[in-house]
């Protein structure tokens, strides 16, 4: 910049010196003429002024422009929104899986209840048929004269078992009180629908106590 200014100033100085030197030089003798003397043309010096230097804006490579910063912020906001929605959906999926597992458990329980109900109905129908057969085919009692005892007073003997015992010829407390271990095994085999109930409920002991309470007679212990 300084070199250009120096060149311009020197050029202007040479031009001014040339003009002033020519003006002082004596001209040729005046010749009378009707032509007016020539008037020197003034020299106009044009000084070239360089344009002001424009300092370029320097942007650091690690500093994003405002437009880039806004784009990054918008993208970050969208990503966070998607992540929040994904978390919410995962929560709904977990809740749905738990509800499905609970419904499956309820369905399994209901199926088992249906199976148990069908089995209970089958058992009821079988016991009903046993009662009908006993009522239709029961023979006359084989014990002595007099009304039979109420065997239902023995714990573990219901109406069905009472009819089955009548069919087998058992109708009094005395008969049951005199059962031996072998008799218990025989009658237990004859009552396959109620295995082990004679010993489990203590029919012999109960029959002895009921006979004593009804007739006032103490029966001897059962034989072997």
Task: Describe the fold and architecture.
By secondary structure, the protein is mainly α. Among the domains are: 62-137; 151-215. It contains seven helices and no strands. It has helices at 2-24, 66-137, 159-167, 173-177, 181-190, 197-201, 203-215.
Which secondary structure elements does this structure contain, and how are they paired or packed?
Blueprint lengths: L1 H23 L41 H72 L21 H9 L5 H5 L3 H10 L6 H5 L1 H13 L9
Main features:
mainly alpha, 7 helices, 224 residues, 61% helix
Q: Roughly how many Å apart are the termini? A: 142 Å
Counted by DSSP, the helix tally is 7
- Following the backbone from N to C, one meets helices and strands in this order, namely HHHHHHH
Query: How many E-type strands?
Result: 0
Mean pLDDT: 79
Name the helicity range.
Answer: 55-70%
Structural class call reads: mainly alpha
Gross geometry? rod-shaped
Report the C-alpha radius of gyration, rounded: 67 Å
Strand content: under 5%
Catalogue the unreliable spans.
140-145
Biggest beta sheet attributes = none
Concise account of the structure shown:
With 224 residues, this protein is mostly helical. Helix content is 61%, strand content 0%.
